[in-house]
């Protein structure tokens, strides 16, 4: 059973590389370059279209829509909502990264608006953000979460039922569920917390994976596993953050299904 | 004849380094950092001024204006048009990168507005974009072109006459023309398609070269040749995209007229 | 006396790493990613919050506010002023980087507005900018200063009295004063002028240091010394700009109080 699941997960890497999904990203400017580069290295094609009068039509051309709520300006915020409506109409998968929703309550309004007029297929946040959305308190500071992950899977499942979507909470361990199937991934590296954009880049990869596969749960597991295994390899090559960032992009590019299979530490629930 | 041309082309590198042209860039946020860094490595001075109430006066101080249409917001779009007017009045060369004009037809309105109230000295796009502007269909997906380049030079010449400017179309081969003189450059590396911003950075270099030389055609050939030779050297040093990006900036910095001459694969037409 | 001062300066590195100050940055998009990454490597936590309706409340959560005037859009500009008001009310230190104030006179209006409704604890600019603010002419071109630094300390002291804050002017030598105590730092590397964002990153570090220490003068000296020593080490490892940028982040991460002490070339005035 577990091997069957893992096979399905790792295959998504090849599906991304075969399909080259166009991932339409509306994301913060801090890490927008990193998101574009990691998408290219993963095998996808990035498009950072965010002009209000372009996004509705552009979503139609895309394989997936990635919305990241970190420091969006007004035009981006409105474009994000409109893009999600287009995604609903045109049946394009939507991945949401609710950056800083626990620190900036206004983000919740944007999420509710997206749920109201658009849709969310996958929500991927750090454990603090996911717990907050599930109605639980957590230890957060600014955009960072210092939560140890206790009770995280239960929160993911609850949020999955509330939003009717796949939910992923990242931290030392990563928790993914679609309400029925769940996985805990124990790969990764502490170095992710020493560079900006690890979470944003991961969200973009979730978009790419969902743009290549109908099975959003399995696609999300692939994106998170890919990021974590590449992170582990990058850390082996470079244990300082400047060099680590460079190697991370290299290692995403050099991923193979075999590497994912060999390295995976997944517990299926 | 060919050697005379090549001499003229390679000399522009020294002209950039002697003049240190101030290149005023209005460009997308995805790759704005890359554009600034490659300009510095080439020998130019970047200025990313885009505030609507500053650009008119700032253009006067500049050696060249680079406008890149990728994901401009409203303020940038208006600033780009106004800056082009200032460039016309103050006789500053304008390089335009019509990013995604084939995928997002609204871009054409901005281009037409720039032609109407400002001017364009050089238009540099991928083959798909240039063909689209010349009225020909092409194989594009999002911001990327998968065109093989057949008929590209003819399209460049047609567009050059339509817009009365130098035209460059990039792809596996690069095509440059001012309507009278034409060149095909066969240098470069596939790795340019694995990192974001190769095209944007090249556009910025075209701005720098045009800011250092009156001969826009020859300047554009230098910018494209410099990018391609540096790309070839970077790929020799690093065949994965994260490291390649770093080496590309290094190799632009380390370019010399001799390296350009030795490596150049240019066919003059 | 000098050793006591140097001890106080170097200790701030540990204070940053113990406190992990949350540095709220409103900064230009050219180098926003670099600022976030260098803050993480220094030991601080970056937050690039700039939405007008979020900044007032977000400042309260922060240890310091860093405002960088390079190419701010309208929303950022208004957010910067509002954030400075919040910082005044909530007693959060404010570091201002007056990028391009000598080239774009409109920047002065923003600075005056911040002084009127908010406050400035530290102003850190290049020598050209600081001289301009102090009412002296200087040799500037775009955002870059080519000033040799003659009379710089006097200008810093004058501006310190005018704005009632700590003032730092950077160049070949760096000058810091709070009006009573002054320091001249002779560390650093020419390579800072070959990459974009050296000044912006330094400003962010000043924010982090001031977020960890009450003594703004000593904190600013630490930030500048840290940047310079890391730059010297990065240059030893990589003398080309692409690689230098990567190593700079690595070297900030690897700084220690001992390295700062051994390398420091500070003249106290």
From TrEMBL, chains A, B, C:
Tell me its cofactors.
Mg(2+)
Q: Which Pfam families match?
A: HK (PF02110)
SUPFAM superfamilies xrefs: Ribokinase-like
Instruction: Keywords in alphabetical order, please.
Output: ATP-binding, Kinase, Magnesium, Metal-binding, Nucleotide-binding, Thiamine biosynthesis, Transferase
Pathway assignment: Cofactor biosynthesis; thiamine diphosphate biosynthesis; 4-methyl-5-(2-phosphoethyl)-thiazole from 5-(2-hydroxyethyl)-4-methylthiazole: step 1/1
- Entry EC no(s): 2.7.1.50
Where along this sequence does the record place binding of ATP? 124, 170
Molecular function, one GO term: hydroxyethylthiazole kinase activity
Task: Provide the binding site for substrate.
Answer: 48, 197
| The organism's place on the tree of life at top rank | Bacteria
Reactions catalysed, as given in the entry: 5-(2-hydroxyethyl)-4-methylthiazole + ATP = 4-methyl-5-(2-phosphooxyethyl)-thiazole + ADP + H(+)
| InterPro entries per UniProt | Hyethyz_kinase (IPR000417), Ribokinase-like (IPR029056)
Q: Which HAMAP family match?
A: Thz_kinase (MF_00228)
What family is this protein classified in? Belongs to the Thz kinase family.
Function of the molecule: Catalyzes the phosphorylation of the hydroxyl group of 4-methyl-5-beta-hydroxyethylthiazole (THZ).
The protein's name is: Hydroxyethylthiazole kinase
């Amino acid at each position: 059973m577990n091997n069957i699941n893992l096979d399905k997960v790792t295959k998504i890497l090849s599906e991304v590389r075969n399909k080259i999904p166009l991932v339409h990203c509306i994301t913060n400017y801090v890490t927008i370059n990193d998101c574009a580069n990691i998408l290219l290295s993963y095998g996808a094609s990035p498009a950072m279209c965010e002009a209000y009068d372009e996004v509705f039509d552009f979503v139609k051309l895309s394989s997936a829509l990635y919305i990241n709520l970190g420091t969006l300006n007004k035009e981006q915020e409105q474009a994000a909502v409109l893009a999600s409506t287009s995604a609903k109409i045109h049946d394009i998968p939507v991945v949401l990264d609710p950056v800083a929703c626990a620190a900036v309550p206004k983000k919740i309004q944007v999420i509710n608006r997206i749920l109201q007029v658009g849709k969310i297929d996958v929500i991927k946040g750090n454990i603090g953000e996911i717990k907050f959305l599930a109605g639980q308190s957590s230890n957060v500071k600014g955009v960072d979460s210092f939560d140890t992950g206790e009770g995280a899977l239960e929160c993911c499942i609850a949020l999955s039922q509330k939003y009717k979507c796949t939910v992923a909470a990242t931290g030392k361990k990563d928790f993914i569920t679609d309400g029925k199937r769940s996985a805990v991934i124990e790969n990764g590296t502490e170095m992710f917390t020493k560079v900006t954009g690890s979470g944003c880049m991961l969200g973009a990869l979730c978009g790419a994976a969902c743009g290549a596969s109908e099975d959003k749960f399995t696609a999300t597991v692939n994106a998170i596993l890919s990021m974590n295994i590449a992170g582990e390899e990058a850390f082996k090559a470079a244990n300082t953050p400047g060099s680590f960032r460079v190697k991370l992009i290299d290692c995403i590019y050099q991923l193979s299904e075999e590497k994912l299979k060999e390295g995976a530490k997944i517990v299926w629930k």
